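Mods, move this if it's the wrong board.
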Amino acid sequence: MNKVGFDSDKYLKIQSEKILERIKMFDDKLYLEFGGKIFDDYHASRVLPGFRPDNKIKLLQQFKNDLEVIFCINASDIENSKIRADYGISYELELLRLIEKLQEIKILINSVVVTMYHEGTNISHLENLLKSKKIKMYIHRPIEGYPNNVDLIVSEKGYGKNPYIKTSKKLVVVTAPGPNSGKLGTCLSQLYHEYKNGVKAGYAKFETFPVWNLGLLDPVNVAYEAATVDLKDINMIDPFHLEAYGINTVNYNRDISTFPILKNILLQITGKEIYKSPTDMGVNMIKECIVDEDIIKSAAIDEIIRRYYNTLCDYKQKICEREVVEQSKHLMDKLNLLLTDREVAIVANEKSKEKGANVLAIKLNTGEFITGKETKILSCASAAFLNAIKKITGIPDDEYLLSPVILNSIYKMKQNTSYNTSYFLNLPEVLIVLSICSVTNPIIERALNELEALRGCDAHSSYIIDKSELNALKNLGINLTCEPNM
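Not the wrong board. Structure tokens:
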């Protein structure tokens, strides 16, 4: 059983209470900039064992009657079909996925704002899709002199040129399919228009990481840096909070560097000083819900090492620059971590050397290690998966889940129909065959019913496995790393 170090029920209770307090700070409504993932926050669930991936959406559902959502997406991300690395889909498709999921649970979608729009940028495909869903689309163009020319920004030639998005709820969540989508600018533009129309609205920020009241070198906060190393986010002590209150708090470089400008913009719009620091803007009760610091620390360290392995593989495949690898290694060094601290990697690499073949090792939640080596018929991921579910289900080691007759038949068919040099069954193919065979084989059906036991397990491959197997392991909830070998 997975160890729990975080109390999700407590989090839902006290985080929603803090949001309600923030709403009450302002007379009419609150614009809440919502960072990170609304759905499927698997980074948080890995770093904070016990944090449920759907916590954020459950939190928003508590405000459903008083809530509407504005989505932002950068025009260049649409035109360039920017891809989310974690899902392998474009920002545009992720936007549409999020809209559909929110509509399924009856959360009101106000509109989509296309930010940083330049004339000639092709956004017609998205516009037509949104029209078919009866969702309004607004366009924000770049403001000359942004963000330094505050007098121009807070004027009819700045935010005043943006369309006013009419909202009717007390809480307006402004979110996006990915970073750098213009959430803050949209919130501030709306505040400008609200005040012009006599509406006393406010602004706050919802972020899970970094955790403001954990230390700068706390593994949870370092794991956040490791997750955003490609964005060059760096955790820092918030100097504005320290000066105002004499308390060390953690924020990240972009919020700290832009705070003086943001503070000035808010002052010009509202006529008063609302926040003394970027930390003041945030609503974050993560620390209060940590119930076992040792479990959390261990999980965060595991995540940092996994992220470093990922950057090594990305660099090997020319997906990232050397600078990203160096920064990731710097985070490892901060906490004196080594690749050899990852037990499952040691097991996979030693077994690979011993067998002279590619090997994937899985560490079950019981602490046992299961390995699978590549053969003529099975990939190492397929072999390890079959061995793991047999172990979990209690199926004897000498009993076949898939008979050699079936495997050989598929292998020969692939030889005759495929142009690849490797004809073994990869993991997605094995899962399909198991699903078909489970209809007539109760043993396979029983094994497939135990797949949830693999969620949260760590695994390591002695080489970089292909994308289809990587996605299959992700979907099973297995935390995979690979040696940077092709």
